Each structure stands twice: as C-alpha cells, then as structure tokens.
Amino acid sequence: MHDNAPMDNDLYTVAQLRAIEQSAYAALPPGTLMRRAGEAAARFALELLGGRRDRPVLVLAGPGNNGGDALELASNLADAGIDALVLHLPGQREASDETASAHERARDGTVGFIDMLPPGGDWGLVVDGLFGIGLTRALDGQYRDLVAALDALRCPILALDVPSGLDADTGAVIGPDGIAVRATHTISFLGNKPGLHTADGRDHAGQVRVDWLGVDPAQLPSPAARLGSAELFAQRLRPRRHNTHKGIFGDVVVIGGAHGMAGAPVLAARGAMYLGAGRTFAALLDPGPGYDSVQPEIMFRPADGFEFGKRTLVVGPGMGGSAAAMRLLATALDSDSPLLLDADAITLVGASPDLLSRLAQRSAPAVLTPHPLEGARLLGTTAAAVQADRLAAAREMALRTRATVILKGSGSVIAHPDGSMVINPTGNAGLATAGSGDVLAGMCGALLAQGWPAWEAALGAAWIHGAAADLLVAHGIGPIGMTAGELPAAARAVLNMLVNETGV
Ligand SMILES: NC(=O)C1=CN([C@@H]2O[C@H](COP(=O)(O)OP(=O)(O)OC[C@H]3O[C@@H](n4cnc5c(N)ncnc54)[C@H](O)[C@@H]3O)[C@@H](O)[C@H]2O)[C@@H](O)CC1
Ligand SMILES: [K+]
C-alpha cells in the first residue's frame, strides 16, 4: 500500500525540478539518483504486475536519462525473475555516462534487447522510458510510430517521470499534431508536476505516484502550484448548530435567463440550494417560468428592479449580451455583495475595459468561472492558446481581474490574484455536459453566501463539484449520459460527508 505524503501535492515546474535534481545530484555519488529511480519504478512495476509475474514486461528506453531510469528498472525486474525485454531503437546514442552504465548493467544481466516492437505481444506491463522532462520537441519518426503502436495494446502502461510526448509544465501534448503515451500509471520522480494533472495530463498520466528518490524535503523550493484537496478548505467545514435559521446561511441571487435560456439560472439556483444557501432567488431577464416545479423552493423574480442588497450574486447563466444584461452586470459589479461571474457575464467583462476596471476595483469577494473560450475572451486570445498553458492563463486572468479564477476543464486551475495556484484533482468526463458549469457557479455562490472567503469557496466548489461527478460515476450514473441536474444532490451528499469526516 502506498500512501500519498502531503508534499506529494506540491507541483514543481521543469525548471524547479532541474534545480532540485542538480542539488541532489551534487550531494550523491554518480548514478545514485538513477539507481533509486530504477528501484522505485521496479517496485511499482511489480505491484502492477500482481499475480501476472510470468508475463513478459516490455521496457521502452530512450536516449536520455529517462531511458537510463528504464534500463535500471529492467535490470531490477530481471533480478526479480521477471522476463524483461528492452526496446532500444536502432541508432540511439546514450546522452550521459549514467545512462551508458545503466545500459551496460542491463546488457551484463539477463535483460533481453530488441530494436522493434514485435507484432502481437502478450505483455504483463509496458514501461515508457522514452523521454521525461528533457523532451524538447514533438515526437516524430520512429518514436512517433512506436507511441502510436502502444495504443493498440491492452495492458497497463507505466510511464517513468512523464508520459513521453507530454509537456510536464502545461499538460499539453507537444506539437501541433503531437502524440504522447497514454499511460495507466505514472511514477513522477523528485516531486509532482502540474502537467500530469491538467489539460491532456490526466488522460495521459493515469494514476500518479510520486517518489522523492530520498531528497531532503528541507531543500525543496516553494512549489509553483498545488494539487487541490479537502484539507485546503477544511477550516470552513463547520457542522450546523441546532439553534439556527435560514437568515444565517445567506441569500443567493442568480441573475440571468434571457429569452429561452431559463434552464441555466435554474440549474445554478439548484446548485446553490443544495449546497446550503439560506434562500435562493432566480432573477430572470425574460419573464420566463414563474417557478421551478422540481424545486419550488427557488423564488423567481424579474431581474429588472430587483433589490440585490448585500445578497450574494451569481451573474451570467443564460444571461446573453443585451443592454439590459450589461446594466445588471454593472450594478452587480458596483455592489458590495460577494459576487460570482460566469458565462455571458465573463464575456461581457472581456469586451468592456470599463466593466473590467469596475471588477478589478471591487473590495468585496469575487470569483470568476470561465471555460477556456470565455477565458480567452478575457485575455484577448484564443481558446487554444489558453489550453496550451492553462496555469499561465488562469494566473493572468486572476492578476487582471483581481478576482479568484476557476479555469474550468480537465484539471480545473484555481488562481488567486496573489499568484497562488491549485489544480483541482476531482471530476471526470461526465462534467463535459451542458449546464454543469451553471451548477458549479451556483454551488460556489452558496459557499460565498455562507461566508466562505473567495479562495476557499472556489477551492471547495471545484473540489465538491468534481467529487459529486465521481460519486455519480461510482454509482453507474455516467460518465456517459450524466446530466447537470443530477449534480446538486450528489454535491450535497459530498459536502455533508466532508463536514462529518473533516469538519472542525
Ligand atoms: N539526471 C539525473 O540524475 C536524474 C534524471 N532523471 C530522469 O532523467 C530524465 C531527464 O533526463 P534528460 O535530461 O536526459 O532528458 P530525457 O531523458 O527526457 O530526454 C532527453 C534526450 O532526448 C533528446 N530529445 C528530446 N526531445 C526529443 C525528441 N522529440 N525526439 C528525439 N529526441 C529527443 C534530447 O536531445 C536528449 O538526448 C527525467 O525525466 C528523469 O526520468 C531522474 O531519474 C532523476 C535523476
Ligand atoms: K517517460
């Protein structure tokens, strides 16, 4: 059993990892780190093989130190009696003395060597040691063909350090038409990496384990970002007292619902209600429905002329871009209310320097929940550019707006205006469905209404929203066909579970 240490949640950039590597390297006899990496990876490989130790293991070894780690792993597996076969492409030259020695050790032992992928192949496990953090360009030629051929295999794939082809900083597959190994498991050396957890990272890295190769934690720099966990908002998870009333838990007003778009604010209002807002209003731009027959507790009002007071405002779901929408948004921005901007409200802010400066000048809490295209509008760029470096994009949005930002997508990035960043680890593909963002907006609004600071409300809402989707999948409800309307009740179950287990 491998338990995650708290520092496993710290995420380091390649530049930071190089610095950690250099100081550890200088303090140890040559080859020590590579040997340790090979041992740690071999232990993991044996765990993954389980009862299938009679099956051969295919080890792909590249030219750099990632390949050296792979060769060390192969020697260790062979020593453990496993039939380990190294695929070493023709013409490949070892880039370092350590890798050359690892190669020699493997040649001297019982490791087998091949120079092309045999057809078929009933592998117990495939290990990807082609490239790690030293990858500088897209995979091409024989490497590309090899990685493409792995997709046909039906066995676990263990990536060493980083799945080959993936950018360890951003989680983007390198190259415009790039390719990267799709691992089921990744063992990350000398610290965890942001690119394993966002953008394409989750699809390519699979389950991530961190091995520190014995480095002294006191020598570590402060991480560039962190992986989210319930501990980051545990302080706010308070059990409710008996002697309370609805006025204590705040009011949420969802402002949106242009003609034909009433579903979005209704979903947001349900999200708010199920996460414990005292009272929830749907303030609609279009007359729309008078009430929600599924959730009649939601109070419907015309947005025009509605007194917001100090209620928490969730602005944007289905709001459209009309002059009336813009007026309501300006009023909300100028208010002292805790504020959440989603969807059309973010697009409007992106199109208006005036609205942007009103947002940046607010003193009351503000959270933005853009998807990549809305984020791109805010930054004046394209969704592809946002996705190419989600952490940098989220940080820039938070700096410009002076608000907490949740950049949605696989591995949502939560950015604080002070530069802090967290990647949310929960959730699954079931959330890629219409309305799930509306529910998130309402949920975050409910936490703001209950007095959570913007940063913790964003962390909590993103984590609980993802965990709700994971809970639904565990019950066979999705990911295919999961609907946004199923999320609020699951999120309520997650929140109450957290309060019972973690709450102070
Ligand atoms: N140096 C050390 O002591 C340690 C190294 N470690 C391992 O070493 C890795 C980093 O090693 P390296 O810096 O050697 O880098 P890599 O092993 O990731 O690859 C670098 C090599 O690949 C070549 N290359 C880069 N992109 C290519 C492409 N698209 N097609 C073909 N060739 C390409 C480079 O010219 C270089 O020769 C880490 O990811 C980790 O696995 C860890 O074991 C920790 C200790
Ligand atoms: K690799």
TrEMBL record:
Binds 1 potassium ion per subunit. The keyword Transcription regulation does not apply. Gene3D superfamilies: 3.40.1190.20, YjeF N-terminal domain. Keywords: ATP-binding, Isomerase, Kinase, Lyase, Metal-binding, Multifunctional enzyme, NAD, NADP, Nucleotide-binding, Potassium, Transferase. AMP binds at residues 408-412, 437. The keyword Kinase applies. One of its GO terms (biological process) is metabolite repair. K(+) binds at residues 66, 128, 164. It catalyses: (6R)-NADPHX = (6S)-NADPHX; (6S)-NADPHX + ADP = AMP + phosphate + NADPH + H(+); (6S)-NADHX + ADP = AMP + phosphate + NADH + H(+); (6R)-NADHX = (6S)-NADHX. Residues 17-221 form the YjeF N-terminal domain. Residues 229-498 form the YjeF C-terminal domain. SUPFAM superfamilies: Ribokinase-like, YjeF N-terminal domain-like. InterPro entries: CARKD, Nnr, Ribokinase-like, YjeF_N_dom, YjeF_N_dom_sf. Coiled coil: none annotated. Belongs to the NnrD/CARKD family. This is Bifunctional NAD(P)H-hydrate repair enzyme. It comes from Massilia yuzhufengensis.
